[in-house]
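Before relying on records like the one below, remember that each one covers exactly one chain. Contacts with other chains, cofactors or solvent are not represented anywhere in the record.
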Amino acid sequence: MTNTNDWIYNARQWNGKVLYGGGMESSTLKIEYKKFNSFLKDYIKTLSRKWIFLRMANTYNKGTFLDFSIKVYDLPKELKARGEVVFSGVNSEGIKGVGIKLEFEEDTEKYLEKNIPVNVKEKYGEVWGERICTLIEEE
């Protein structure tokens, strides 16, 4: 995720993702993936493993709970999750932000388990889709 420093109506955008938040007083963050590929990359690398790191100039304190509303292009359902800040500060790569332990709501979890493999195979074909799904299953 490359930080472009472009603010769009109280939103920060990273490689096709837009992170909304009403400031530190808000406990709900909205993330919008403009491309399914961007979501899939994050899902394989972090989200399916129940964590996410968000670059932020202002950070939340450890132990803070945040609600997430995630919209993904090509997925008709808005994804819901709740996370706890487990890291706040500068990471090993020198990036300031927060590390969040994430849990999808039960219906979102079931939706993802059922629909991600279907969407991946439709988008990339059976052979590549199967390989990508194997990456998702590795934890």
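The longest strand covers residues 79-90.
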